[in-house]
Amino acid sequence: MRVSWSSAVLAPALVCWAAIGLAADADPAEGEGFRIENKVFVDNTKEPQVESTTIFYHGVVYDYLTKPPEITVFDAAHGRFILLDTARRVQTEVGTEKVGAFTEGLRRWAAQQSEPFVRFLGAPQLEEQFDEASGELRLSSSWITYRLATIEAQTAAVSSQYREFSDWYCRLNTLITPGARPPFGRLLVNAALEKRQRLPTEVELSIRTGKGIPPKKTTIRAEHQWIRRLVESDRDRVAQTGQFMAIFRSVDFREYQEKVSE
Description:
Layout: E1 34-42, E2 50-57, E3 60-65, E4 70-75, E5 80-85, E6 90-95, H1 96-111, H2 116-122, E7 127-131, E8 136-140, E9 144-152, H3 156-176, H4 184-195, E10 198-209, E11 216-227, H5 232-247, E12 249-250, H6 253-260
Parallel strand pairs: 6-12
Antiparallel strand pairs: 1-2, 1-11, 2-3, 3-4, 4-5, 5-6, 7-8, 8-9, 9-10, 10-11
């Protein structure tokens, strides 16, 4: 899911939301997979700005963005993302090596900037608090605050797979979305979640910028509904995506980006 600077980058992850817990006797990461329904709201809007569905299936993650209709496939085993524009029937491939190099370059760039907020985004330091009773996780600073409602991950495999996808998806978003916020704050959140073996059901990000009194504040809230087992329609959707990958015309990344922005 592509989310611009103004609406933030919480994706599938990032986007993690009002949820159904995973069954204690099931290991979706190693079995038939699981699905997350995602919605992102900005400030006090009642309608989501972004909606997507993320399917974890046999070691590959499929993210389906509603508007515009775009599919992102994360193939960790082969170190790549495949982006599919279903309206124009084209696809492109982006290696995780390229994505990682871009984000590290962004980190170095931010460190050289004179604006304190930009430097902070390149190397954020967040105070971490966790409430065992409620499952609320907070990571905060004077600039940004993450507040997460969480559930316990039933297996380490689910927690690890979720973090891997969320980390890489955040990095990808900075590459493909002009003006996207650097991913480093969310990477700290993902690490805190895995450390505690938790999964997010709601993520609220508050960003305080500007010099007014009170200072300008933007709030982005993401909800994730976790569906512990895939149904036939999910597997059909994955199979259809495989067909798209076989027949859609392959283009280079620059051409794909130009088409998406048209």
